[in-house]
Amino acid sequence: MPTISLCMIVKNEEEVLENCLKSVQDICDEFVIVDTGSTDRTKEIARQYTDKVLDFEWIDDFSAARNFAFSNATMDYILWLDADDILLPSDQQKFKKLKTSLNSNVDAVSMIYVILRDEFGNPTFHYRRNRLVKRSKNFKWIGPVHEYLDVSGNILSSDISVEHKKNEKQSTGHSSDRNLRIYEKRIKRGEDFTPRDLYYYANELRDHRQYEKAIIYYHEFLGGKKGWVEDNIRACLNLADCHAHLGEKDEEMESLLKSLSYDAPRPEPCCRIGDIFKAKKDYQTAIYWYTTSIQMNKDTAGFQNQAYSTWYPNLQLCVCHWELGNVEKSIEHNQNAKKYRPDDKQVLFNEKFFNDFMKNNSKK
């Protein structure tokens, strides 16, 4: 059976670190925890699980820190996690099974990264990441910020999920300007940005509500025509967000339509185009786009919000068909939405409304 090193970089993670380490303590054979300057109990907690708690001077470079952690691993494979990630019990069991059956010719294993779940526990935002890699392949992290692990070879796509479980006290998310400051320091130093840098810098600008500036960099990224298809599509969606915040409706629509030029239509832009036509009361056109969002659902390596291919378009189709007088179709789509969200307040309200409507009509 192969052995596994867990490699992490941490800083001031006392609120979440123990939950992360507990979730993989029966899976990993070695823990390598690299601290980049904690001032809380992070290192104390880490030392309860391993003697390999190493210091690394922070140099505004996530890849440098992660590569340092990887360089200190000694087992057959390396698993990487962030401190606010955990494996739920069901995924721990899947991982243990994978470990006993993992063929040595596998160079990397990708896992599903669940960022958000709805109030009913359904995953709403997720994507794949290469999480477990063969140490002997010497794969490297690339990029000072929004870094990625440059992996190649025989990659196994597993059904194991890693859950993002950020503590409420640390849920500031994009309100932190750390990444934005790193990018702007690089600009001041005159560094050239890769297409990936342009994309993520634009994202940081958008997240900090610098919409006009974000638009400039999204256009520069897309104009270079060297981006990954999934980033191209997401850039179009984020560009549409920026124009929407600025009240630029025509440009918002243009950005959504541009996303269709990179691949088959994806559910999210289809739904958002449908929303625009629905707001105009052009229900027939809206129906086309919502229906397309359901039909075009497919698994991709990029970001996925399942709402746009499941309950959301069905709820909108319920409204559109009702407005056009298609009562049976309206009821049908509400029932479809209920399959995904059986306790949703809007779905239950619609169901009661339809029941009352049908009863009143049967008396006539």
Are there runs of 5+ residues with pLDDT below 50, and where?
Answer: 168-175
- CA-based shape: globular
Judged by helices, strands and strand pairing, the structural class is alpha/beta
Cα end-to-end separation: 72 Å
Largest sheet: number of strands, sense, barrel closure = 8 strands, mixed
CATH superfamily of the largest domain: Spore Coat Polysaccharide Biosynthesis Protein SpsA, Chain A
Helix content percent band: 40-55%
Rg: 23 Å
Secondary structure tally, helices:
14
CATH fold node name of the largest domain? Spore Coat Polysaccharide Biosynthesis Protein SpsA, Chain A
What is the C-level CATH assignment of the largest domain? Alpha Beta
Average pLDDT: 94
Number of domains: 3
Instruction: Describe the strand arrangement of the main beta sheet, using strand numbers.
Output: 3-2-1-4-7-6-10-5
